[in-house]
Amino acid sequence: MIYTVRGEGEHLNVVISNRSAQPIYEQIKEQIRTAIIRDEIAEGEMLPSIRLLAHDLKVSVITTKRAYDELEAEGFIATVHGKGCFVLPKNKEQIREQKLREVEHHLNSAIAGAKSIGVTPRELVELLKILSMEEN
CB within 10 Å: which end of the chain, N or C, has fewer? Predict the structure, then answer.
């Protein structure tokens, strides 16, 4: 299921996969968090209501509420009772931590792939150095 969070030329799609091992609330949370970090959803912008998002995604209100609650606990959004949920100003350290987690995930995948073909840690470090120098 794909849900367009915004209209008017700009939009954010939330894609829900029932085949994913990741719980639906986490799929929603991760996609909204990523959109906030990438400035696809601007600071101060209102998110769709919990009920509207649940209805459009055809999921439980409890599922969308949990996603929003976790985003709020992580400091990405704030709930203004009676008005809705809004994107908070970005915390640079929080964004750095999120990006580091993404890098760690990719490095773990690379390490697993390297191990599967017998690449040694030393060879992997050397490859990383070479690739890093090519970027500069």
Answer: C
Tokens for 7, please give them.
């209209």
Which alpha helices (H) appear in 1-120, and where do they start and end?
24-37, 50-57, 61-73, 92-116
pLDDT tens per residue across all 136 residues of the chain: 655 555 444 466 888 888 889 999 999 999 999 898 888 888 999 999 999 899 888 899 999 999 999 999 989 999 999 999 999 998 778 778 878 888 999 999 999 999 999 999 999 999 999 998 876 6
Q: Alpha-carbon torsion 54, 45, 72, 101, what sign? A: positive
Cβ contacts of residue 33 below 8 Å, gap of 6+?
A: 71, 74, 76, 98
CB 56: neighbour CB atoms within 10 A?
A: 16
pTM for this predicted structure: 0.68
Residue tagged 């101060």 (tokens): 44
